[in-house]
Amino acid sequence: MTTTTSESEHQVRRTAGLVIEGLGVSLTGSHVDVVDDIDLVLKPGEVVGLVGESGSGKTTVGTSLLAYSRAGAEISSGKVVLEDRDVLSLPWKEVRKLRGEEIAYVPQDPASALNPSIRIGKQLVELQQLRGIGTSESRLQAARDGLTEVGLPSDDEFLRRYAHQLSGGQVQRVALAMAFLPKPKVLVLDEPTTGLDVTTQKMVLDTMAELCRTYGVSALYVTHDLAVVANIADRVAVMYAGQIAELGPRDTIFANPSHPYTRALLDSIPHLSQARALKGIPGRTPSPGRRPDGCRFNDRCAFVVDRCRTEVPALRTVAPEHEVRCHRVGEIGTWDINIGTVPDADPDRPREVILSVEGLNVFYGRKQVVHDVTFDLAKGEVVALVGESGSGKTTISRSVGGLHKEWTGSLTFEGRELARSARQRSAEDRRRMQYIFQNPYLSLNPRLTIEQIIKRPMELFGLAKGKEATDRVVELMGQVALGPQMLHYQASRLSGGERQRVAIARALAAEPDVMICDEITSALDVSVQGSIVELLEGLRLERGISMLFVTHNLALVRSIAARVEILQAGSVVESGPVATVMDTPREEYTRTLLSNSPRID
Amino acid sequence: MSAATTPGTASAGAGATGPAPESFFRKALRQKRFAFGFSLTLAIVVFAVVAPFLSPFGEKETAGPPYSPDGIFGTDYLGQDVLSRLMHGGQSILVISVLATLLGMVVGVLVGVIAAYAGGWWDEVIMRLNDVVLAFPQILLALVVLTALQDPGAWVIVVLIGISHAPRVARVSRGVALGIVSRDFVVAAEALGERRSRVIVAEVLPNMTGPLLAEAGLRLTYSIGVVASLGFLGFAADPGAANWGQMIFENRLGLQTQPWAVVAPVLVIGIFTVATNLMADGLAQASQKGD
């Protein structure tokens, strides 16, 4: 529970904004809490970032503001007070009216928010009819104004379009316009920019922040992306395992994080400005019902003492507006942003080229998607392929890996020409180049056990058999930080991060010289991303494995790669050592990408 | 991603330390439909299997005058005991249906999965040929061949029904397989250079079991229907032997005097069809919930 000081602050602000008090959501039919003890105030015109990893309950909190809980869960306690009315205890009819009209929601997937068979203009007008806003004449004009506000064209041609005729960013901005049309008082945004390119993301975020400030709307921005929060939020609430771990003004959270979890999170994210060595958080987020006693972070915390395991910490105010849920908040010293840099990013190091790509053109049917791409990869080096969606980065990596056959050009591996598809290459070439996929939920056969999955490349390439192979599997699992007890687990029982580790172990089982990593961290939480990057860096130093690292995240490039190729529409626009390209970009496109990327520093 | 607070991911996250996942069969048994259909099917199978030991009369033994009400279900047009014939008649129909279903499933699944996995031109050719076979009504194909053959054995019926199932099964399994062959773990196996047959057997097929089991249940239902219809139309494997379909045909003239001789086989066919269908439904539901 909050201290008395924050309780009295609630009283003062109750006239405006939204006040959440002691909110709890539990699984239906049991007393297992999904989230509990949430106290939060959204002031008018303020954007509050609600940050957390998968399973932290941040989306649950977001939808609770609309008195909604997903199937299987129910709002069990607390109040959500908007202008002296408790949203949670209002009759159903009034809640319906309130949703959208006073508290609006922008979902994660914009495409699902728009009806694919109704024209954009009609949807905007219909929304007002439903709410009884304006007159039949004024509605169309209001629709146009709404579109203009979010920076979209408002001519008849645009109003006549269907959702599929818009780009992802446009759809998200239409969704934003729809949310703003009834002039809501509170806006809940659930990761509205996930899946958008940085340039589009920046546009959507700027539009949102501006509208909120202009109309005095209180916004709750739910996300896993700390970098985005650092750019748009006024205050930040960090959630862990269903509770708010730390709450404070943005600058305080990023400069002086006081909860060990917040610090660990910040230690796991890459920065644009320096080649930061990343650290992951060991273990996994406990799911509802499996959360430890005492402080919920105690099993993963570096500062844990006996008290943390028995006594539940309260949210304590350590500075004005800054609340932390930790027993040892005064004892653990201050946080140092500097956790060291990746040691080996020296651009002048001699390079021993192992793989070179020359004049690569890739086609899908008659359509050419990659144009004349040339680059090479040296031993023990990480080269990053960076670009927005549609830039051809994955296509290039798939062609190099032999998963896509329709390409021309030359691909040389240790001086030997490689065949187009993996099947045409020799077993030795296939073994020495391994591909790791973006989505670990799709890349492992859910019916096989971890042992079977990791063992297979060894059997296939005749590296080890039977007992010996099993021993190697256990050893590899140790290297990727998976316990041997998982040997006989089926892949479907693992979390995303654990699955990706299995996928890496499978690649390592073939004892490769080159690993092609296709956005391998983009489906994972930041703390998991941090530990995967840590792991890859270790492997590179230890085994001298070269990596082709495909990503859209420029900050991540800084922490992992030595060289970078910036791609736009299937061509390389700029390439070179990471430090050079990122500190002194020559091309306009690189500069735009860099300036649009959300930055923390 | 943040939608991670859905029950699916929550339980997946919890799974690592939880008990081993239930077997598919046990999961299916918790479906009321499946449990009910399964026990009914089992009862009828037992009913047929115990015929040689428990039936009051032999298969072709005369029990009394024709169309008399003696015994539980009375006698038929030749004075044979209806209950005994019903029990004896079950075996052949069950064996033929199960074998035909198995054959149809194996051929159909192979064709469908290969078409889906090969893709492109191969897929087109295989599936269009498949459509040609599919164009024949199931029973017509069997009738044409049976009329042409002098003395068709039981295996001919098995093959005919199996073959007529195959294109239907192929369509379904191709659809299921299409969703699997594009997944990254299949691509990963390709990249490692696994043999194509192993990719199909080890990577694709295990992920199709749920929908395929459901399809098998459905096909079994159809098999029973077709076998019974063929018997009714006079194309039983052994004309003198008891056969549910044939019994309906033989005794239809006595429907007014001794209705049980017709109604009893109709009832068992009906019950069995409903039971296998419920089983198929239950399996489909369980496989949807699964993973």
TrEMBL record, chain A:
It is an enzyme of class 7 (translocase). This is Nickel import system ATP-binding protein NikD. Belongs to the ABC transporter superfamily. Pfam families: ABC_tran, oligo_HPY. PANTHER family: NICKEL ABC TRANSPORTER, ATP-BINDING PROTEIN, OLIGOPEPTIDE TRANSPORT ATP-BINDING PROTEIN APPD. The complex is composed of two ATP-binding proteins (NikD and NikE), two transmembrane proteins (NikB and NikC) and a solute-binding protein (NikA). It is a peripheral membrane protein. One of its GO terms (cellular component) is plasma membrane. Residues 20-266, 355-594 form the ABC transporter domain. It is found in: Cell membrane. Its EC number is 7.2.2.11. InterPro entries: AAA+_ATPase (IPR003593), ABC_Ni/Peptide_Import (IPR050388), ABC_transporter-like_ATP-bd (IPR003439), ABC_transporter-like_CS (IPR017871), Oligopep_ABC_C (IPR013563), P-loop_NTPase (IPR027417). GO terms for molecular function: ABC-type nickel transporter activity; ATP binding; ATP hydrolysis activity. Its main location: membrane. SUPFAM superfamilies: P-loop containing nucleoside triphosphate hydrolases (SSF52540). Signal peptide: none annotated. GO terms for biological process: peptide transport. The keyword Cell membrane applies. Keywords: ATP-binding, Cell membrane, Ion transport, Membrane, Nickel, Nickel transport, Nucleotide-binding, Translocase, Transport. It catalyses: Ni(2+)(out) + ATP + H2O = Ni(2+)(in) + ADP + phosphate + H(+).
UniProtKB/TrEMBL annotation, chain B:
PROSITE patterns: ABC_TM1. Pfam families: BPD_transp_1. The chain crosses the membrane at residues 34-54, 93-117, 216-237, 257-280. Keywords: Cell membrane, Membrane, Transmembrane, Transmembrane helix, Transport. It is found in: Cell membrane. CDD domains: TM_PBP2 (cd06261). InterPro entries: BP-dependent_transpt_permease (IPR050366), MetI-like (IPR000515), MetI-like_sf (IPR035906). One of its GO terms (biological process) is transmembrane transport. Belongs to the binding-protein-dependent transport system permease family. This is ABC transporter permease subunit. It comes from Nocardioides flavescens. The lineage of its organism: Bacteria, Bacillati, Actinomycetota, Actinomycetes, Propionibacteriales.
